[in-house]
Design a protein that fits this description.
Elements (H helix, E strand, L loop, with lengths): L2 H16 L6 H8 L3 H7 L3 H21 L12 H17 L1 H10 L7 H17 L6 H20 L10 H15 L9 H21 L1
Helix pairs in contact: 1-2, 1-4, 1-6, 2-3, 4-5, 4-7, 5-9, 6-8, 8-9
């Protein structure tokens, strides 16, 4: 691991544990065992350090969003696609738990920091994808609560005073919960529903034929 990577790791840990506003460049330098000038050699400000520390998580989320079908391709977005998307999303959150902690717990105080603005925009885009088929406000509200709860639960795992859950169990519960809260796909989006509808239609036609 390079000096730059070591600095980033230390910064991410301290920002998540003690807060961005409560962490100084000197404290990060002390955690690494280097000088403040060495940290500033690699990052010219604390803000640029936060941006670099958050970048892997945000780049991964942006890459995921680029793979989601656009609105004119949405007819190809099946239930299996939804489960796959949510699974990758939850895995992404768990892989970048410290960045999630920073975003969930500190974004209100850091709204003027560009990297938090980028994070907000990406999270909103993900929410829009998952609620794209919502037809009622309660559906949107339930999913919004579920997404916020998932991010909070993952972010809180970085704290020492929070009970630890089995990682795989938590992963499975989060995936299932978010998928369950997503509005049901219309029949034309869900192959299973389409098959069921066609079967019901065929059965109905057969019955009518017999009655005639």
């Amino acid at each position: 691991m390079t000096t730059r990577d070591t600095i980033l790791e230390a910064a991410l840990e301290r920002f998540a544990r003690y807060g961005y506003l409560g962490t100084s460049i000197q404290q990060i330098a002390d955690a690494v065992g280097t000088s403040k000038s060495s940290v500033l050699y690699h990052f010219d400000s604390k803000e640029s350090l936060l941006e670099a520390a958050m970048a892997p998580a945000l780049d991964a989320l942006e890459s995921l969003l680029q793979q989601v079908p656009t609105s004119d391709q949405h007819h190809a977005f099946s239930r299996d696609d939804l489960v796959s998307l949510v699974t990758v999303f939850v895995d992404l959150l768990q892989a970048h738990a410290r960045a999630v902690t920073i975003f969930v717990s500190q974004r209100g105080a850091l709204l003027d920091v560009p990297v938090i603005g980028r994070a907000n925009a990406l999270v909103n885009r993900m929410a829009e994808v998952l609620i794209a088929e919502a037809s009622a406000t309660p559906e949107v509200m339930r999913l919004s609560i579920g997404l916020a709860g998932a991010a909070f639960l993952i972010g809180e795992a970085e704290r020492d005073d929070v009970p630890e859950f089995d990682r795989e169990l938590k992963r499975r519960v989060l995936i299932d919960t978010i998928v369950d809260l997503c509005p049901p796909l219309p029949a034309e989006h869900d192959p299973a529903a389409t098959v069921a509808a066609n079967t019901a239609g065929a059965a109905s036609a057969t019955t009518e034929g017999k009655d005639a």
